[in-house]
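During the reporting period the student researcher (J.K.) took over the structure-prediction task from the postdoctoral fellow and processed the backlog of single-chain submissions. One of the processed entries is reproduced below for the supervisory committee.
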Amino acid sequence: MSDGPYKSLNMTPAWKKFAEWAHKAAFEPNEVASRVVPALEETWRDEGCGEVVRAIRTILGDAQQTDMFGQNKSVELEAARRDLSAGYPMRRLIVDHVMQSVANGKLGIDAVCNGVENALRDRAARGPRQVEEHYLRKQSPEAIATRIRNRMENAVATAPIAGLARRLSGLDAPAAQPQSVKQQGIEDGVRLP
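J.K. obtained the following C-alpha cells:
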C-alpha cells in the first residue's frame, strides 16, 4: 500500500501536510482548511516576505490621504519589485498585487493589506494545481487527483486568509497559537455521519 504521492511532492513540509490531509478522506473539510494558513505562513517565512512588506509600508506610508507625489511611489514600488523580489516568487506576488491595489486607488496600509491578501490568495490557488499535476505525473487516476485538488480548493475558499493578511501586513497583532487537541479516547475519533 502506498503512502500517497504527497510524500514525493516538491513542496515545503506544511504544503505536503496540506496535500496529505486533502488526500486522506478521514480528515474533515474544516480540518483540511486548517492546514492552509500554516502552509502560507511557511512560504511567507521561507521567502522573508516580512522584509518586503516593511519596505512597501515605508514607501507608501500608513496615511489614508492622497499623496501628490503618487507617481514617485510607483517608481519606488517598481524599484522594490526589482531589488527585493528577485528569486522570490511570493515576494514578487506581494509587490505586484500592492502595485495593482495602488493603481486601483487604494492608499497606504489599505493598499498593502489588499495586496498581501491577494498575493496570499494567488499563492494558495497555485498549491492545489501543483498537487494535482504532481499526482497525475505519479500515475494516479485522474479522479483521485481531481478529488484532492477540489478538497484543497474548498479548503482555500474557507480558510481565514483575510485575517492572515491583516496580521502579516501589521494591522492586527499576532494571534496566540491554538493548542492542538490531543485525541484521548475512542469518542474523540473521526466523526460518524
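The committee noted the following: The CA atoms of residues 81 and 95 lie 6 Å apart.
J.K. will present the remaining backlog at the next meeting.
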